[in-house]
C-alpha cells in the first residue's frame, strides 16, 4: 500500500511539473489602427509568427457596420507613399464581426516573405470603405508596420495604387 501511495505521489508530481512548463512561445506585435475617416472605425492589428515563419494578420475593428465587407490590404511603403502597390490582399474585414484573419507567406508578386521580413520591412495596412471607384479611396483605418512604423508620425495617408493592379 505504501508503494502505491509513493507511486501515485510521484506520478502526480511529474504531471504537475510537466503541465507547468510551456516551452512554446508565440512571437507577435500589435499595432493600433486609428480611424482616418468620419466613420469612426478603429481597432488593432496583431501580427503573429507561425511555426513555419509565415505571419498571421489578425484585425479587430470596432464601429463596423453589419452586412458590409471592408477590403483590407498590406501595402509596400508607409502610409504616405503615393500610389503604394498592394503587397498582399488580406482577407476582407467583416462588418458583422469586425475581424479579418489572413496567413501571409507569399506576396502578391509570388515572392516568399517571412514574419521577420514583414516586421523588419517597410509596409502599411489599410482598411478601405469598399471596392468601388470612390469607396476604395476612403481609408477607414490604417497603420504603418515594421520599419515604417513611427509612433511620433501619423501624417497624411496617400491613396493606394490598387487601381493599377485592378483591385
Describe what you observe in this structure.
With 167 residues, the protein is α+β, with helices and mostly antiparallel strands. Helix content is 15%, strand content 36%. The protein has two helices and eight strands; from the N terminus they run αββββββαββ. It has helices spanning 2-20, 115-120; strands at residues 28-33, 42-49, 55-62, 69-76, 86-94, 99-104, 122-128, 139-146. The protein has a four-stranded antiparallel beta sheet with strand order 1-2-3-6. Strands 5-4-7-8 form a four-stranded antiparallel beta sheet. The protein is globular, with a radius of gyration of 21 Å. The relative contact order is 0.20. The model is unreliable at 3-23 and 162-167 (pLDDT under 50).
Question: What keywords describe this structure?
Answer:
four-stranded antiparallel beta sheet; 167 residues; 15% helix; alpha+beta; disordered N terminus
Q: Outline of this structure?
A:
The protein is 15% helix and 36% strand.
Q: Strand order across the biggest sheet?
A: 1-2-3-6
Query: Taking all residues together, what is the mean pLDDT?
Result: 82
Rg from C-alpha positions?
Answer: 21 Å
- What is the percent of helical residues? 10-25%
Structural class: alpha+beta
Ends distance: 74 Å
Question: How many helices does DSSP assign?
Answer: 2
Largest sheet: 4 strands, antiparallel
Global geometry: globular
Uncertain ranges:
3-23, 162-167
Count of strand segments: 8
Proportion in β-strands:
35-45%
Sequence of secondary-structure elements? HEEEEEEHEE
Amino acid at each position: 500500500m505504501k508503494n502505491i501511495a509513493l507511486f501515485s505521489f510521484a506520478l502526480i508530481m511529474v504531471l504537475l511539473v510537466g503541465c507547468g512548463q510551456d516551452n512554446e512561445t508565440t512571437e507577435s506585435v500589435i499595432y493600433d489602427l486609428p480611424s482616418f475617416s468620419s466613420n469612426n472605425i478603429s481597432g488593432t492589428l496583431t501580427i503573429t509568427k507561425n511555426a513555419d515563419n509565415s505571419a498571421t494578420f489578425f484585425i479587430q475593428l470596432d464601429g463596423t457596420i453589419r452586412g458590409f465587407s471592408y477590403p483590407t490590404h498590406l501595402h509596400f511603403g508607409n502610409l504616405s507613399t503615393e500610389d503604394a502597390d498592394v503587397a498582399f490582399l488580406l482577407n476582407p474585414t467583416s462588418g458583422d464581426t469586425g475581424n479579418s484573419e489572413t496567413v501571409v507567406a507569399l506576396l502578391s508578386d509570388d515572392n516568399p516573405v517571412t514574419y521577420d521580413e514583414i516586421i523588419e520591412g517597410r509596409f502599411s495596412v489599410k482598411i478601405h470603405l469598399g471596392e468601388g471607384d470612390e469607396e476604395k479611396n476612403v481609408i477607414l483605418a490604417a497603420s504603418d508596420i515594421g520599419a515604417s512604423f513611427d509612433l511620433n508620425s501619423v501624417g497624411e495617408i496617400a491613396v493606394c495604387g490598387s487601381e493599377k493592379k485592378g483591385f
